[in-house]
Amino acid sequence: MSAPLFPAPWMYGRRKLTRVELIVYASLVGVLLLIFASQVAEYMELAEKAAMESTATNVTAALNLRYASLVMAGTTIDAERWTTANPFELANAFPPGYRGELAAWASMPRERPAWLFDSVRHEVLYLPRLHKHLQVGGAPAGEVRFGLRRGPSGFGFALTPSQAYEWRVSPDR
Q1: Residue 173: inside a domain
Q2: 25 in a structural domain
Q3: H-helix or E-strand containing 28?
Q4: CA distance 154 to 131
Q5: The pLDDT of residue 97
Q6: pLDDT of 30-77, one tens digit each?
Q7: 158 is in which domain, residue-wise?
């Protein structure tokens, strides 16, 4: 009785794998998992960047809606006081992760992501959970600060970054 020249594929399923085959398969699966985990982390950081920017935009919009409604109601508003006050309280818009004032947060557990208001510098502070690709002012950083400034048209306000930041995360890499 002779063995076939090319064994049928179903014949390989009936034998045990050799150690070399196990090592090759385990290495291949490990490399694929590492690549997958890296890509997932990139997308999570990209999502956090988008959430931070949309939160800043939403707070600005809520603040301007409140300001416009007060102006239309005939209320006198001190715009300089608004630029030094807590924008979250003025807009009555508290994002998920809002922890209050920075001085009070110093004694609490440090959970990230977190939105804080620095009453000394009159800035909003965002502490991201993932900040591997975040650079503020050209240096790696773990926070982004926003200041409340008058709008470019002279009416309303804008929550703008205090320092230029760059979050170099892209799914195309």
Answers
A1: no
A2: yes
A3: helix 19-72
A4: 34
A5: 86
A6: 999 999 998 898 899 999 999 999 999 999 999 999 999 988 998 888
A7: 17-167
